[in-house]
Amino acid sequence: MAKVLAAPKRRFLAILVAAALCVAPFRFLLAGAPLPALALPLHALAPMLQRVTPGVVAISVKGWVKEENPLLKDPLFRHFFGLKKGQPIKREMQAAGSGVIIDAVRGYVLTNNHVVEHATRIEVTTKGGRHYRAKLLGRDPATDIALLQIPAEGLTAVPLGNSSRLEVGDFVLAIGNAFGLGQSVTSGIVSALGRSGLGIEGYEDFIQTDASINPGNSGGALVNLDGQLVGINTAILAPSGGNIGIGFAIPINMARAVMDQLIRYGNVERGLIGVAIEDLTPALARTLGTKERAGAAVMRVLPGSPAAQAGLKAKDVIVAVNGAPIRSATDLHDRIGLLRVGEEVALGVDRQGKLREFRLRIAPSKAAESR
Q1: What residue numbers bound the domain in which 111 lies?
Q2: Active-site residue, from 60, 98, 114, 370
Q3: Is 163 in the active site?
Q4: How many structural domains is the chain composed of?
Q5: Which residues touch 90 (CB under 8 Å, ≥6 apart)?
Q6: Which among 144, 210, 316, 334 is annotated as catalytic?
Q7: Residues 241, 173 share a domain
Q8: Which position among 218, 316, 328, 331 bears the catalytic label?
């Protein structure tokens, strides 16, 4: 019997010891003793943000916008107020947004076109509280990108990243002047890539993120965890008028291509290659005899166009531009739209299962369309 009772006693003692260990931490808490230090390090974003946030600025603009009141179309109303036929009415406006310093030596600041398009005066305020009168070097409504310049006095630039390396699930941070309250930072992930067809801009290849983007964030920075600029915040999907976690940023690779033209020429001159295209679907791929799964299928080639002169034909599938893969017809449209008139381009083309390369030059176009 003694042996039978011994085991239960040992278990009872073990239970008492375990209970004492569980109660001990609470006794220390009650006594005011400090908690033991955690062995695992806590990762903070503060050190990276201390380097990056001085490169994100607040932008305030003043200007004039055309009044679109429907009463202005009424001849009786215009006569009553002494307005001549066709005479526009303008009202003064003020707006606020954000920008990103991308060249500290030359004082270049990237922002959205819609932030500055009606401006007659643009003022940039750094995180440190310095105010500068900004010069508009150029803007591109089709991509919603504008380039400003301020005096290069002890500025901090945000290093440029490579937006083509982004993947869904990557952590990102949005930095800007939300609601004009001053600089703020929000965090989230890349929710989707290559968003288009939203009707926001003429050339769309948006990064979608759930990092909060609010009014005033337009033109601000979307950065990765290395503090590299991967996008310019531009819009949100807000059916209720507020942020619902669906925001959009212009990829920095697209913004940089536009910026390079604005620096060199002051504008973006787009052209065409002369093809009518559609997305390559599995059914269309079978019809065209190609094993490609993505690309832009050529439905028609305009006579006399660069594409016709280079030898492209209907039923060809464009799968690459200058060596970069093409995902869809919209992707091709955007890639061509970032090239300047007269620039040579190499197209990778699948013709009935065989890959070929065609070289041509972008031709001028009043419509500035590539398809």
Answers
A1: 48-81+93-149
A2: 114
A3: no
A4: 3
A5: 64, 65, 66, 67
A6: 144
A7: yes
A8: 218
For this structure, is 114 an active site residue? yes
Q: Do 97 and 187 sit in the same domain of this protein?
A: no
Tokens of 162: 């490579």
Instruction: Specify whether the CB–CB gap between 148 and 124 falls below 8 A.
Output: yes
Residue with tokens 């009463």: 71
CB 127 within 8 A of CB 249: no
Q: Is 365 tagged catalytic?
A: no
| Per-position pLDDT tens, the chain of length 371 | 333 334 444 444 443 334 444 444 444 444 455 555 544 454 688 999 999 999 999 999 998 877 655 555 556 555 455 555 555 667 788 888 999 999 999 999 999 999 999 899 999 999 999 999 999 999 999 999 999 999 988 999 999 999 989 999 999 999 999 888 889 999 999 999 988 777 777 788 899 999 988 888 999 999 999 999 999 999 887 666 666 788 999 999 999 999 999 999 999 888 889 999 999 999 999 999 899 999 999 999 999 999 999 999 999 999 999 999 998 998 899 899 889 899 999 999 999 889 999 999 999 875 434 34
Count of alpha carbons within 13 Å of 232, Cβ hemisphere only? 32
